[in-house]
Amino acid sequence: MKKLLLIIAALGISLTAQAAAIPEPQVVRITPRIYALLGPVGLPSPHNQGYMVNTTVIVGERGVILIDSGSSDEVGSHLAKAIAKITPKPVTHIINTHHHGDHHLGNSAFKNARVLSSEECRKLVEKTGAEWVALMENLVGHKLPNTRPVPADVTVPGDSRTESSLQDVKLLLWAPKGSHTPGDLMVWLPDDKVLIGGDILVNGLVPNLRDANLKNWITALRQVEELAPATVVPGHGPLMNKADVAKLHKMLVGFYAGVEGGYKKGLNDSEIRPTLDLSEWQKLKEYDAAMGANINRAYLEIEAENF
Ligand SMILES: [Zn+2]
Q1: If you measure from the C-alpha of residue 273 to the centroid of ligand 1, how many angstroms do you get, rounded to a whole number?
Q2: Ligand 1 centroid vs 220 CA: distance in angstroms?
Q3: Is residue 114 included in any domain, yes or no?
Q4: Tens digits of per-residue pLDDT, 180-209?
Q5: How far is the CA of 302 from the centre of ligand 1 (A)?
Q6: Pick from 3, 45, 82, 266: CA 20 to 30 A from residue 166's CA?
Q7: Residues 6 or more apart in contact with residue 44 via CB below 8 angstroms
Q8: Mean pLDDT across the chain, nearest whole number?
Q9: Looking at residues 55-63, what average pLDDT do you find?
Q10: pTM
Q11: In CATH, what number is assigned to the domain containing residue 211?
Q12: How far is the CA of 140 from the centre of ligand 1 (A)?
């Protein structure tokens, strides 16, 4: 019996001391110079070690442009190893699509890279970065001693489109009016017809409206459809095509109209919920976790608009 207890104790120690391995990205070659590193889909957890975001690698003349860097220094280093299998060129630029920790807390793993974001994103990383580290530590179940927020050193203004060339790659830095967050930035590669959407585009999971402006988000999706991208890299989930973008757009339009209709009838958000057709939303991951808050958020936005 004593021996058994000793074995259990030993097992217990080894189980708590040993963190799960960070899952490998699914590497998809979109064009000869653009690769999507697709992360697992789900919330950050001890199982995925917080790795649950998509990252895009653009191989330029003398270096790599990396779009979004993961949720910790550890995840960033993990991505660096995957990038080294694609190209020996160093990561010289990071572009962050927004201030949510899963998209930028890996920046610190790329010591020599310049970091670019929207101006509002930079401010929000400065303001909320430490909170995101604490939240991530909580979700993965251990300390992240090497992880620290690295805000952008180069920014573009909100509601702007900036033509740029990095490592001889032509790109459009497109900061729409705050959609998923107040500081969104999308990246359009006109020569490749590839759009990197951050979380304005998500595939297979419920869009998160917590920091969103739904009306602007709907406008941004309409504009993405007008661009007619050949491939969209969403912030989470598998690659998207034009039809997938149209479907997401239609879903958000229907959702907004449903909540607005209920508001105009004088219903509150919990009374509106049963009147909505959520059949398409129900098919998506994180439905139970996100939907109540999403309805509340849309309701508050519509209430403010009508005030
Ligand atoms: Zn995200």
Answers
A1: 25
A2: 17
A3: yes
A4: 999 999 999 999 999 999 999 999 999 999
A5: 24
A6: 82
A7: 50, 51, 52, 71, 102, 136, 139, 140
A8: 94
A9: 98
A10: 0.93
A11: 3.60.15.10
A12: 16
